Amino acid sequence: MNYVPPSPSAETDAFRFDNSFARLPSQFFARVDPTPVAEPWLIKLNRSLAEDLGLDVDTIERDGAQIFSGNSVPAGAAPLAMAYAGHQFGTFVPQLGDGRAILLGEVIDRSGQRRDIQLKGPGQTPFSRRGDGRAALGPVLREYIVSEAMFALGIPATRALAAVVTGQPVYRERILPGAVFTRVAASHIRVGTFQFFAARGDMASVQALADYAIDRHYPDVKNDERPYLAFFKAVVARQAALIARWLHVGFIHGVMNTDNMAISGETIDFGPCAFMDAYDPKKVFSSIDQFGRYAYASQPAIGQWNLTRLAETLVPLFDPVAATAVDLANDALGEYGAIFQRHWLQGMRRKIGLAGEEEGDLDLVQGLLTAMHQADADFTLAFRRLCECAVSPGADTALISLFAEPTAVTSWLADWRKRLEREPGTTNERTVAMRAVNPAYIPRNHRIEQAIVAATEDADFSLFEALVDVTSKPYEDQPRFMSYADPPQPDEEVRQTFCGT
Ligand code: AMP
Ligand code: MG
To answer: Which InterPro entries match (predicted)?
Structure first.
């Protein structure tokens, strides 16, 4: 008998898809299959996520290269590219869409949540314009590392299920290895998805999309007297909370265009994103953000700007009387600042070990940030070392050594200790609580860069593996990985990051 090789797992039902987005009207997407690649190889499968998703892990591990390259479309998938528009750096582009991404479908995870599984870089779609629909290895590894680190930090974010190299080059400023990233998201509905239909005057589709998003992400608002307004308010609240969380860990998204803001409240589209080292509110990494539109401290305001664009699409659904509808929208937007501030201050209090609340806390927090800024202190390390100062003044030296100029932080520590005298709890409880919110490990830029260079130039994925590993437990001291907590040496510092395009 002739040996017949097993066919790629096209028939595997390892996924048990249930594709609700594909059941929406046809103007929401274009059906398109991934374009097969030459020689895919599985870099990494996120087994624990695969298990949470209820996937057949052994099968997808065995066939991972074929499945996650798009060579073999699993049974039950309904591959499609989603339509969306967006404001890019303030300029409206009426048609963007998934130009280098294909949604395979949705699964219901073990906790009953519906999750999208999407390939990023699987070839052209009707929305590719002049792009090749492909992704280079570097941005794929960056998204893998950073999105998983965000999750481990406890910040809502899309997840990394797998990464493969395609065995084919992609042509950017130089020739780079091609790769495909598999992303898992609560959904891929963006502010720009609403803008796509609003820009075409298609209010029926805006409403259908809102109904879909409500069902999927905000079912509670259906009981509200004004469900669409309640939906909008809920999106506002989630975004305000999300951006506050970014600031707590020094995260800079980099491209907060309206097409890169998810309605679900997850961090999405990790392009030229980065965590800052030395604290600087004006910090920008992205090479394309020349005017600092998306700088660290500008993110809260940009969040509100983007939500205003969302409000513009939804406003006719708020009330039949236009003037009333606009007033309702403005009131909802007006709440954003206070919601953000509340989340931000609450998180900052916890970072400096305060369980109680006092009037002067904002000034105290600002005092530390100002001292850090003036003295170029490393953001992550300063807060981590502060955890030790909560138990022992002997630890002050290690903290102070991070400040180029110690006077400000020394007098701040004295103020802080006076404030702590009025706090409940023991010093040990305080330091434990502080260590649970002040990470030791973030995916520092220079580490990401080193991992990308090793993978791209030498096909060496050991630095990538190590970085994913260490940042999966960001709040635990890991003696083996101590150097990963360190800021870059001057010659290691990364000043710019680039988009995946
Ligand atoms: P992004 O910068 O990832 O937010 O992408 C902005 C838009 O450009 C989206 O519509 C993407 O689908 C599209 N795009 C980015 N890179 C590519 C590519 N290599 N091929 C096709 N479309 C792309
Ligand atoms: Mg995008």
So the answer is: SelO (IPR003846)
How far apart are the C-alpha atoms of 391 and 389, rounded to whole Å? 5
- The residue whose CA has the least distance to atom 12 of ligand 1 is 99
Whole-model pTM over 0.85: yes
288-333 pLDDT, tens digit per residue, is 898 899 999 999 999 999 999 999 999 999 999 999 999 999 999 9
Name 42's Cβ contacts closer than 8 Å, sequence gap at least 6: 61, 64, 65, 68, 162, 163, 164
Say how many Å lie between the CA of residue 134 and the centre of ligand 2.
14
Residue 491 annotated among the catalytic residues of the structure: no
Q: What percentage of the chain has pLDDT greater than the value 70?
A: 97
Q: Measure 471 CA to ligand 2 centroid, in angstroms.
A: 24
Cβ atoms of 296 and 252 closer than 8 Å: yes
pLDDT tens readout for residues 433-482: 999 999 999 999 999 999 999 999 999 999 999 999 999 999 999 999 99
Which ligand is closest to the CA of 498, given by its number?
Answer: 1
Question: Which residues approach ligand 1 with their CB closer than 6 A?
Answer: 96-100, 127-128, 131-134, 255, 259-260, 269, 271, 499-501
- What is the per-residue pLDDT across 324-360, written as a single tens digit (0 to 9) for each? 999 999 999 999 999 999 999 999 999 999 999 999 9
Task: Please name the amino acid found at residue 158.
Answer: T
Ligand having the closest approach to the CA of 170: 1
Which among 63, 98, 259, 277 is annotated as catalytic?
Answer: 259
Sorted by sequence, the CB contacts under 8 Å of residue 363 that are 6+ apart come out as none
- Cα of 165 vs its chain's centroid, Å: 22
* Ligand-binding site membership of 183 (annotated): yes
Q: Among candidates 476, 481, 487, 478, which has minimal Cα distance to 402?
A: 487
